[in-house]
Amino acid sequence: MNLIGIPFEFVGMTYYQCPFDITIGSKVIVTNDFGTFLATVSKVRKASDQECEKENFNQLFPPIDRIANSDEIKEDEKLISYRKDICSFAQKQADELSLDMDILNCFIDLSSDKLLITYLAESRVDFRELVKI
Q: Which of 117, 122, 129 lies closest to 101, judged by CA?
């Protein structure tokens, strides 16, 4: 069983099962606690015998959903500027609300019903009003 490493800015490196050979740089669809995303494979390794024997192997290493198709890859490329616009808008709104935070990035779930925004702040930020906007 291959394990593929997918780096997510918001959760770090996550490993997924992939029952077939795959290469670094391949685009895949994966689901995590934050949604379903198109991601790029950055590591590939074989699962060790010890890992395969673990009862919770499927929880530790969930399977990939599928290899991304060309339409999904094109759609994701189109969303790059949209994500930048969202980040700019969110930063502008945070500034207007006098929130001491820097918007870092945003991620759109493939179903487009979830938006995840990462930010940096030196202390706790009450961003409930920003979420409403």
A: 122
- Give the CA radius of gyration of the chain: 17
Mind listing the pLDDT tens digit for each residue in 14-31? 999 998 889 999 999 999
SS (H, E, C) the chain: CEEEEEEECCCEEEEEEECCCCCCCCEEEEEECCEEEEEECCEEEECCHHHHHCCCHHHHCCECCEECCHHHHHHHHHHHHHHHHHHHHHHHHHHHCCCCCEEEEEEECCCCCCEEEEEECCCCCCCHHHHHC
Q: Compute the distance between CA of residue 119 and CA of residue 103 in angstroms, rounded to an integer.
A: 4
To the question of pTM greater than 0.70 for the whole model, the response is yes
Note the pLDDT tens digit of each residue in 23-79.
999 999 999 888 899 999 999 999 999 998 999 999 999 999 999 999 999 988 888
Cα–Cα distance, 17 to 56 (Å, whole number):
13
Q: CB burial class (10 A; 0-12, 13-18, 19+) of residue 122?
A: exposed
